[in-house]
Amino acid sequence: MQLKVLVTGKNRKVANDICEHLEADRGYVTIKCDPNKTALFDIMISELPKVVIICLGDESSVTVQAYNVMKSALRQGNITTIVVTDNEDEKMFIKYTELERVIFLSRPISLFALYEKLSEIEKTIENTKDNNLAAFREYVNEDAGKPRRKQILVVDDDSEQLMHIKEQLEEFYDVTCVKSGEAAFRYLAKKRADLILLDYLMPIINGPEVLRSIQDTSGWEDIPVVFLTGMTEKNKVLKTLAELKPQGYIVKPAKKSELVAKIIDILG
Q1: Domain of 259: which CATH number?
Q2: Which residue from 119, 162, 179, 202 has the least number of CB within 10 angstroms?
Q3: Are the CB atoms for 214 and 221 separated by under 8 Å?
């Protein structure tokens, strides 16, 4: 199979070497990404890699914490994270990371060891596919009896806003972030959202157009929608409220208390 591998980190030389070897020797799809919060956040929701390789180099508390933005995606996507490091950077990483599970690979790296681990990941993915085809499959619902967390879909073309809202809400809700109306439609075609926080101004398809499509689509029309808007758009939003009748609006940047209060007011 052809693994999709995201390679990032401050040690650009090691990252570039790994990409070249994975493409030439193994035929993997490799994606390089700058090690900053915005870039990592965007690439995780757009590319959905199966493996993330972080190449550490002269790290600080700030640079290590930038990788924490991947935490939710790594947990939900069953993604393997490999951290290429020396002893000093490993200590710094352990001290400041919020990632739940990683595999450390010492630098200078052994390509043989790396390829062996990637082959193991490939086999696991293939076995999972085979198991899914079995006639009988056991399912244990560990969440039975527990209240289901509400699903919040946030649609905004601004990555900083998406990260800000996700950090505010993920303590209480399952939060999915997308950057366009088209991505929101793809999500809703597969999964249910209990509430949508929708940016009013977006390129290509703006917020009101997205809301009209949601209201006109069978199965989506009852999903509550709240606009996210800047102060300059407030009067336009009020007109849209009268016409399309969403469940309200919140002025950006929104406070955590305002967001949670609005959601509770709508969903209980």
Answers
A1: 3.40.50.2300
A2: 119
A3: yes
